[in-house]
Amino acid sequence: MLAAALFTFACSVGVGTKTPENHPKLNWQNCASKGSCSQVSGEVTMDSNWRWTHDGNGKNCYDGNTWISSLCPDDKTCSDKCVLDGAEYQATYGIQSNGTALTLKFVTHGSYSTNIGSRLYLLKDKSTYYVFKLNNKEFTFSVDVSKLPCGLNGALYFVEMDADGGKAKYAGAKPGAEYGLGYCDAQCPSDLKFINGEANSEGWKPQSGDKNAGNGKYGSCCSEMDVWESNSQATALTPHVCKTTGQQRCSGKSECGGQDGQDRFAGLCDEDGCDFNNWRMGDKTFFGPGLIVDTKSPFVVVTQFYGSPVTEIRRKYVQNGKVIENSKSNIPGIDATAAISDHFCEQQKKAFGDTNDFKNKGGFAKLGQVFDRGMVLVLSLWDDHQVAMLWLDSTYPTNKDKSQPGVDRGPCPTSSGKPDDVESASADATVVYGNIKFGALDSTY
């Protein structure tokens, strides 16, 4: 009986052997000063949510958007019986790397399944995520969003994940960072199949609008720095902070928050964030096809985190050899600024009639603490089964007049972005991230 009890306590998610895990290379540069950059060897790994989960012999533990009850009657049994396997990055997920740039394809028809979107993390070595400390630094990358229409989001961002994917903290997280465990963000997502090294299968409810996803009773929360959320029509730069220190599993609305109403502000994290979307901030001539930052061609994105601890976030672009300063806000009641700060957030939330949950959860003081501990880089491409990405590129909320400050966020119609539509009409959509540089302010461009 004692042996059985110990075995139950020590149960963990296993590592499968059906598919070899060969991480795509993604090298980048660390810059001490302008013109003084050194190459860093890196690679990426696929998030565990996208991976094949089976019993070790090839029988699915998760199929479609449902856990198989015979293998997963509860979280601990499911964790003990199921493994995460390696990824066929190009054939199954449409991921291609040339060593310095990564191409993410939206829909990939594989031999056994159709894959939608992806989420990957930059690794320091085979089993450890690279941790970036952002205070008084800048982060730069090139991007091509020309093939991303309304409703898609090519997102490059940072989250306060554990560097080892939770392997040291949670006994069950055996696959660790090598197999993409440990994800968290400021939405406290509950669609994760594994949290804290355990399956999230108990109480799992398949999503009615998504044949691949569901939601468990737990979520996974941590602070998030959205450096880049974009398609060819709109872009947003958004910090989010949480009450947590690092990743924390949540349950219930008092911890996880919610999508709507006051529940959205009840949880551990600031789900709305404090965003700078050029269109939403009053400049409809700055970002898009044929505009100042012309999304028909690739360009470079420079994000600067001023102060140690950070007090301001600034943005620049480089296209065709020309440095382009970010557009300034043009909204009554908001200073004509191109940067995000506590003062900007206070003015913006008041002008837009929004709750300043960024301030309530700690604002830039909290963000500086997170930056000092360090964050993991995420590269992703996704569509939105909740609100069709209208919050990024259209009128949102849709029941408000778009003439109200903050409601008009982009040029896309409110009928756009429906997942069935974009997955059919834009299956070949791609985003390309490359030429990543990190270092001292004004050193990377």
From TrEMBL:
EC number(s) given by UniProt: 3.2.1.91
GO molecular function: cellulose 1,4-beta-cellobiosidase activity
Stored Pfam families: Glyco_hydro_7
Keywords, in A-Z order: Carbohydrate metabolism, Cellulose degradation, Glycosidase, Hydrolase, Polysaccharide degradation, Signal
InterPro entries from the UniProt entry: ConA-like_dom_sf, Glyco_hydro_7, Glyco_hydro_7_sf
Gene Ontology biological process terms in this record: cellulose catabolic process
Residue segments, region Disordered: 399-425
EC top class named in words: hydrolase
Keyword Ribosomal protein: no
Stretches that traverse the bilayer: none
Keyword Lipid metabolism assigned: no
Catalytic activity entry: Hydrolysis of (1->4)-beta-D-glucosidic linkages in cellulose and cellotetraose, releasing cellobiose from the non-reducing ends of the chains
Signal peptide: 1-16
Family of this protein: Belongs to the glycosyl hydrolase 7 (cellulase C) family.
Protein name: cellulose 1,4-beta-cellobiosidase (non-reducing end)
Organism: uncultured symbiotic protist of Neotermes koshunensis
